[in-house]
Amino acid sequence: MQSTLRRTWAEIDLDALKYNYTKIREYIGNGVKFLGVVKADAYGHGAVRVAEVLQHSGADYLAVSSIDEAMELRIGGITMPILILGHTPKEQVDRLICFHITQAVTCEAKAEEYSEAAVKYGGSLKIHIKVDTGMSRLGYICEGDYFEHGVDGIVHSMSLPGLETEGVFTHFAVADEPGEDNLAYTQHQFELFTRVIREVEEKSGKKFAIRHCANTGATVDHKEMHLDMVRPGLLLYGYGEFAHKLGLKPVMALKTVVSTIKIYPANTKISYGGIYETTDRTRIGVVPYGYADGFMRCLSNRYSLMTEEGPAPVRGKICMDMCMIDLTGKDEVGVDSEIEIFGPHNPLENMAEMAGTIPYELTCAVSKRVPRIYIENGEITSTELMLRI
After folding, report:
1. Radius of gyration (Cα) for the chain, nearest Å?
2. pTM score, two decimals?
3. In the 8-state DSSP scheme, what is residue 343?
4. CA dist., res. 39 & res. 346, Å (int)
5. pLDDT digits (tens, 9 = 90+) for 60-75
6. N or C: which end of the chain has fewer CB within 10 A?
7. Helix, strand, coil shares, percent, the chain, to 5
8. Helices (H) and strands (E) in the chain, counts
9. Which residues are catalytic?
10. Mean per-residue pLDDT over the chain, rounded
11. How far apart are the first and last CA of the chain?
12. Is the dihedral of CA 287, 288, 291, 293 positive or negative?
């Protein structure tokens, strides 16, 4: 659906996405498969459009969180392999098989449920075994005294009827974090993971076709951990220090316009709570961008939006649908002037640091009422709005 409202919008640069994919592919080499993480609507960028680019560019796999996300891709025309990283109820196994969707298996109980459902359906479910090596979230526990039990559980799961074990994977907890302790922890996770693989393959007599563990940090900093496939998430979208290391480009720019301008005298309180008070004659712009669009209230009275004449500080508390910015001395900025919330002149990383969070959270937080405008070959090719009207 399209919107005719010029309010706040996200520009998704598909040319930058293609560039990032190509650069990462060159970096990992031809012998390593590429899995693009497109869960959470491709981190707010639009899963179907991102998946289209990756499929056309030659990526090997996609990863999503749920069967609903996987079905959105299939209905959208995506035919390449899709791995569901999260839980799928056993009642949905027939759909997984019918639509050729790969399922992560995280414990024996789930493997047995999936096996029973697949046999009942009369098909074969492709699976990737998840090993918990220290994330302490999902996966067969194989740490310490649990090693043999975890290995035996994986071997048993691989022998169940109706299941086709294609891959095995784990997830690093601190590979994106600096420091010697984090490096040591990541190396411990990797060593445990490879030890589990060796033991399972020896006991089962079967080889895993795809072994994968490298997230964004490991993809860039630990080539020895690439194994058969890498899983770049934020890296693909061009944000963060690891993207900077590879010279990648941010894919999303968030923009808005000035809807109203008002002149206030000194000693005027601005917005809820009156936490900002003017000290002199002040030119205030009202911008249709608020916390319902994804603008965190913790940035109230702190963050600056970027105008053609430089930064404009946010004044007062951020409202649900709008915020106020100080345009004093920026006389060329008027009603309908375009404002960059984050983008090439106002990096997303700055907003994330100020908010005490990560870029992932900010792109995922861009709400469904913000249209995504897709740009390819330097031209707008489509506009999508998630609202139902």
Report:
1. 24
2. 0.94
3. B
4. 26
5. 999 999 999 999 999 9
6. C
7. 40, 25, 35
8. 13, 21
9. 39, 272
10. 96
11. 8
12. negative
